[in-house]
Input
Amino acid sequence: MANLFEYEKEAIRIKAVRMDVEGEECRRFSVDPNITSFEVLQNILCRAFEFPSTDITIKYLHRDRNGKDVWSPLLSDWDLDTAILGSADLGLELQVWMLDNSGADPNADGKGIVSGVLETGHLLAKELKPVHEAAVNAKTAG
Output
């Protein structure tokens, strides 16, 4: 089993919205969180949206420390477990993009981020910036 946790729920509801087309294309389904891996979820999404392969980008909705809604990349089994644990009773909301042949991620805002890994790196750098600044300030003050 790929999951890190044993879930009490037998099924979790998922709402997936395709973001790389005009208009809203939405699929709703349920999966067993105890046996669904990231790879299985990718395959389910590809079949649901009739994508030719697993060349897709997935983001999940969660709340940050300040209570704001945030879309984060879903890249691994670890991310899937985090998403499931954070979705509580509301279900899991996903955004899905099919990658073009160049590997660019055609986001709705047009940023053209190359991959979810790069985006995650940017998010981590943004989160760690205050920590770094505090460390530099403490070093110069001491």
Residues 103-114 have pLDDT under 50 and may be disordered. The helical segments are 38-48, 77-87, 116-141. The chain is about 35% helix and 25% strand. Strands lie at 12-18, 25-31, 56-63, 69-73, 92-98.
